[in-house]
Amino acid sequence: MKLLLAAALTVTMAASMAPAQTTPQTAPPAVIEDFRPSSLNQPGQSYPQVNSQGYARFRITAPDAKAVKVSLGLGGRGGTVLTKGPDGSWTGTSEGPLDEGFHYYHLTVDGGTFNDPGTLNFYGSTRWESGIEIPAHDADFYALKDVPHGRVEQILFPSPSTGTSRRAFVYTPPGYDRNTRDRYPVLYLQHGWGEDETAWSNQGHANLIMDNLIAAGKTRPFLIVMTYGMTNTIRPGAPGGLASFDIRPFQTVLLDELIPYVDGHYRTLSDQRHRAMAGLSMGGFETKLIAPRHLDRFAYIGLLSGGTMSPEDVKVTPGYRDKVKLTFVSFGSRELEGGRSGPPGGPRSDPRANAAALTAAGIRNVFYVSEGTGHEFQTWRRSLQAMAPLLFRD
Amino acid sequence: MKLLLAAALTVTMAASMAPAQTTPQTAPPAVIEDFRPSSLNQPGQSYPQVNSQGYARFRITAPDAKAVKVSLGLGGRGGTVLTKGPDGSWTGTSEGPLDEGFHYYHLTVDGGTFNDPGTLNFYGSTRWESGIEIPAHDADFYALKDVPHGRVEQILFPSPSTGTSRRAFVYTPPGYDRNTRDRYPVLYLQHGWGEDETAWSNQGHANLIMDNLIAAGKTRPFLIVMTYGMTNTIRPGAPGGLASFDIRPFQTVLLDELIPYVDGHYRTLSDQRHRAMAGLSMGGFETKLIAPRHLDRFAYIGLLSGGTMSPEDVKVTPGYRDKVKLTFVSFGSRELEGGRSGPPGGPRSDPRANAAALTAAGIRNVFYVSEGTGHEFQTWRRSLQAMAPLLFRD
């Protein structure tokens, strides 16, 4: 099982490091000139821009530069090459429409890696990167709306095992402050490789997704706890990198330090059936390494583009059938092209087949696919929206 | 009074836009080669570095660039010019030691403005800028220590006057979650021009300053509420920019929307004598424009590098003497060189003289000077540390 996991990790993390790309098209549609600033631009910045088709247009001021490139674009050219205009600014448009949702990117200016000064930054690929948002047809579910809003609370919890105070963010639903007799279930939600504890609320909009679901009466209110999964100590692709990954340091932080702190400082329901763990990409693999081995603690398991749960996995895990109330597995449809859970060369384990086999074996599970998206945050936003209403219903 | 305020604002904001600089010295000390990564570097990044004397050393990879400059350094050269090494990286050391504490900066690469990919970014000058921390002799008071920690909670509160949900951060002290019968005073704390609601907790470490003061028994625990002061709608220096600044939109958000929301969702002491308002630089001027005219709401007033309170100001404010329990005014010593509250050419109002006159007139006030710092966050960290213990003692 260890080897299988390692193989799957390689694939998932390689995908997470690849720049966001669309499937190359033989004839991209003609560009419609209705470009508007991306919603993630810094205040007052007019570039980058996006149009109604999903094209992105970039403009960078660097009058004395020799070459400026954007890491985002179509696969064939490794990004979008900008060209210099008479005013000294560099401009370029993606060769085709980009997938809906959030994309990380960066610039290469005369051989150096920099962020686009026009946009906000988001932590990914072990550094703060530029972000752009391609308006999605279903963007309403994570929009800031006139509904009651929960909070995102930064806590600093003591961690004797790592010798410091560690940071986590806790989403508390609307009403938590006033319903002082109520206690709440908790979802521990992990980011992917290269990211950190800021990802799910910054680029994931986990708080707005929950606010909107709760306002619509579609989910039970619960807390979400997001902390750094200590994922970035390994360098995927480096020899021996993956083999050296050890889940134990993070498992200690999570099980022995963070969970007791949260249960001690929030009005939680602290029994097994009111605690869930889920994660995206490498956070999904962490979930799979920790939760099934601690079924006295977790009743719900979510793997978002982070591997699958097979009948064999269940078989080797005592009590899985009775204790796990739901196994949620999701992918972006682009990740499944070819019927696999990753890009070509990935593991031979078909997540749809695994889900069907679990169902046939009477194991409660849901398999969700985000249409038209890949190993990116739009897949995970949708996955959270799909998963949240299924949690803590037993 | 309006004209006087406008003149003072011009000076304060001009200072806030100027790059951080040390006073030029005729003979900077010889550089000691004990450079270490700045504490604000991104994970794993070894540059920029700082040494024990306060020199900063920068290294940027941009092999094909023609010129790379850092906006931080000594005044005469407008920053630190980097030189290219044989490996294609650009390196340079500040010409002299920089002031203790936090500095904003950015790069100029072939005529374009970019952030240093080595550091974290902080919102200042209306954009996310690079930050560097020169270790201060008194850094302990805002260090992350093994003491009980409060929270920094992001709230989204409804704002009918601006037609959206607005963001604020609320510091809640350790114990707030457990002492469910206790109610707390509130300080409304404003950032400066070019900054936003993230400044006081990110670069200001307001939460850690409070955690440490509370752990030492030096201050009464209270809440701090930080929201965007709508300061950046004006462009200081632009013709008519300052004259067009209107405090009313922010005053409406603060008084009619945010304060009622906080009093409705937190266990506050909501009477006048348990509410304070303070701000740095332009946030101080906002405080002076709002609080004295609403003494039914505020009992404590703090101006941090943001103007002074004169006997004339008090005279034209009915009830000031009785209702204002404390007026706190602070500056960095570099701001006072020449005995003025700003750089040469600034207003003729001497803050020390004003403070002495208030004292002579029996108006309770404290005048605080941060030694060896200018119009920068080290001054304001120290000011908060000095002010907090004086609040809510009546």
UniProtKB/TrEMBL annotation, chains A, B:
Instruction: Note the Gene3D superfamilies from the entry.
Output: alpha/beta hydrolase, Immunoglobulins
Q: Where is the signal peptide?
A: 1-20
Task: For this UniProt record, give its keywords in alphabetical order, as a comma-separated list.
Answer: Signal
Quote the SUPFAM superfamilies the UniProt record gives: alpha/beta-Hydrolases (SSF53474), E set domains (SSF81296)
Report the InterPro entries cross-referenced here. AB_hydrolase_fold, Esterase-like, Ig-like_fold, Ig_E-set, Mycobacterial_A85_antigen
Q: Which CDD domains match?
A: E_set_Esterase_N
The answer to whether keyword Signal applies is yes
**Any idea which GO molecular function terms this record carries?**
acyltransferase activity, transferring groups other than amino-acyl groups
One Pfam family of this protein, by short name? Esterase
In Swiss-Prot or TrEMBL terms, this protein is called Enterochelin esterase-like enzyme
Tell me what organism the protein belongs to. Answer: Sphingomonas yabuuchiae
